[in-house]
Specification:
This protein is α/β, with parallel strands linked by helices. The protein is built from ten helices and twelve strands. Helix 6 packs across helix 7, helix 8 packs across helix 9 and helix 9 runs parallel beside helix 10.
């Protein structure tokens, strides 16, 4: 049984209330162009960095200010602000992201949530930071597509037909994560689907896409026989690149430093950063917030997966900046 709890205001309503102005739209275009150009040239290391899940706008904005200051010092990195508005969970229970609620299920108000998420994203763009979000709920895509410059399709969604079809219509960068078991072959299949044209029903219309030309795989490790398995070592990355090339796909590979690759221990992202550099990865994803999980009752700690504290994040970013060498 479905019970209506009220209407969600239209995407146009939010675009007018929290607008991407002409000036800021020009900034976003420049940021999108840089990401697309670097996807091809790989002169810089693409780094997606931010909380596992966004929450309080004022705290996220403090984080973004700090991230921008470090980004300005790292000339070899192209840093993207991770502002994940919605989060999935293996058992469906837990904090679902700022678009849903801030403290409890009783607080769910999607209209308020969409507003606060656009507020966070506009702050990032005003700083000159491109934005990454997860394409989790297809119906929410329309509410943020004008602001987001880097989409990700998560491990649980990467083999879903609708998610693949929407991603195939993107003209910005898009990362496709490997499924929960860590399979490289299966994520390459998903990327093939996203990279090719698709006809499908969407928002009451029959639509056709021409395939996303800026899509790539993200290796985030997996869970096999109850144990976490990493897949960002040199052999894994080389295997993925060979499979991609054999299918005529772009062989850009991003290493997710957390999740199964870290065994869900955020501090392991530090050593994973060096592993990713040595393996030939073209980009990395870092889960980072103001404070580590040890300060669990402090605003600025992750409400979902554990994250690096900002001091450690700054060290990792500067290490990556110092040691990055473009493949060219």
């Amino acid at each position: 049984m479905f019970t209506s709890q009220g209407k969600i205001k239209s995407p146009d309503f939010y675009r007018k209330k929290f607008p991407l102005t002409a000036e800021l739209g020009g900034v976003k275009k420049i940021l999108d162009d840089r990401l697309r150009e670097n996807f091809i040239s790989r002169k810089k290391l693409t780094v997606v960095c931010g909380p596992c899940s966004a929450d309080y706008p004022d705290v996220v904005q403090i984080y973004l200010d700090k991230l921008k200051a470090v980004a300005d010092e790292c000339e070899n990195l192209l840093i993207v602000a991770r502002i994940y508005t919605s989060k999935p969970h293996s058992n469906g229970v837990g904090y679902k992201g700022a678009v849903f609620h801030l403290t409890s299920e009783a607080d769910v108000n999607l209209n308020d949530g969409i507003a606060r998420c656009r507020e966070m994203m506009l702050h990032a763009l005003n700083l000159g930071l491109p934005i990454a979000d997860e394409l989790l709920y297809p119906e929410l895509f329309e509410y943020f597509k004008d602001l987001v410059g880097y989409w990700f399709v998560g491990a649980r969604s990467s083999e879903d037909a609708l998610h693949r079809c929407i991603a195939s219509g993107l003209d910005v960068c898009c990362g496709i994560k490997n499924p929960p078991d860590g399979s490289v072959d299966r994520v390459v299949d998903s990327l093939y689907a996203v990279s090719n044209p698709c006809i499908f029903p969407y928002c009451g219309k029959q639509v056709v896409t021409d395939g996303c030309k800026f899509a790539h795989v993200v290796l985030r490790g997996g869970l096999r026989d109850g144990a976490f398995c990493s897949n960002i070592g040199r052999d894994d990355v080389l295997f993925a690149k060979k499979r991609l090339v054999s299918l005529g796909l772009n062989d850009f590979v991003m290493a997710d430093l957390n999740h199964a690759n870290s065994g869900k221990v955020a501090a392991n992202q530090i050593q994973n950063a060096q592993i990713a550099l040595n393996s030939g990865a073209d980009g990395v994803m870092i889960e980072s917030y103001l404070y580590a999980r040890s300060l669990s009752n402090t605003r600025g700690t992750s409400q979902t997966d554990d994250c690096l504290d900002f001091e450690s994040t700054e060290k990792v970013l500067k290490l990556l900046n110092e040691r990055w060498r473009s493949p060219s």
